[in-house]
Amino acid sequence: MTASAPCTSDDCEIEWLEGGGIFRITRQAKLNAVTRAVLDGLASALTELEGGRGHFLLIHGQGDKAFCAGTDLAEIMQMSDEAAAAKTDLARDLFVRLSRSPVISVAAINGLAYGGGLELAMCSTFRVAAPHVSVSLPEIKLGVLPSYGGTQFLPALVGRARALDMMLTGRSVPAAEALAMGLLDRVVAAGESVLDAAEALARTVTGFSRAAVNGIRRCVEVSGDTVTRAGLDVEAAEARAATASPDAKEGIAAFLEKRRPIFNRQAS
C-alpha cells in the first residue's frame, strides 16, 4: 500500500511505503535542479520519518536523464545575496542532518548527479546507480566551490587525492569508475530498476536490529585512515550495548531455533 503526498510546491513529491518513503524531485524539465522548495520538502519527509513514520528514505529524480543537476542557478540569480547564502546554509545543514540521521537513506541515482545533486547523493547512507549515470562536482568551472558539504563528503568517501582530482578539474566520472573509487556503492545491471534495487537494499538493512545498525554507523563515523584507540573504545562501548540489548538475545535464539529473528524496529 502506497500513498503520495505533495510537497509545498510542484518541485517534489513524497510517496509513503510500508516502513519508509520515496522522496522524488519532480523537475524533469530542469534536470531536477534543487530549489528552496525541494530542500523544504526533503526536510519535511525526513522529519516525518524521524518522528516514527518509517525507517528508510529513498531519494530519486524524475525521469532517467538526471538524478539531480545541482542547485537551480536561475533561482539563485533571482535571490538577494542574503537569500542565496541562506539557501546554501539550509542545504548544507540538511545534508549533514541526513548523513547522521538514524533513518537509512538510499540515493537511487537514475541519471547524472552533478554539483548539489552529487552532494545530496553523497550524504545519503548508500548510493545505487544505473549504468548510464555520470557524476561530477563541476563548480570550479563556474569559479565557485562545492558548498553543500561536498568538499567534506567527497574526500571521506574516495580519499583526498581522488577528491582533489574531481573537484579541481570538474570532470564527469562514469558509473563504473565511480563504483571502483567507492563513490557509488552499487551499479545495477542494464534494464534493472535502480529504484527497486535501492528499496531492496534499504529493506535489507532496516530488517536488522536497529541497535546493531546504528551502533555500526556510530563506529564508522569516528573511524579514520588508521586504527586509533579512540575508535576502538567507541567500538567496545557500542558492542557492549548491542550485546546487552534484547535484539542480541533474540538474534541468537532465532539462530539456534533455525527461524527468522524478530528485531525491535525502533531507532536507538
TrEMBL record:
InterPro entries in the record: ClpP/crotonase-like_dom_sf, Enoyl-CoA_hydra/iso, Enoyl-CoA_hydra_C
TM spans (from-to): none
GO biological process, one term: fatty acid beta-oxidation
A GO MF term: lyase activity
Keyword annotations of the record: Lyase
Pfam (any one): ECH_1
Family: Belongs to the enoyl-CoA hydratase/isomerase family.
Name of protein: Enoyl-CoA hydratase
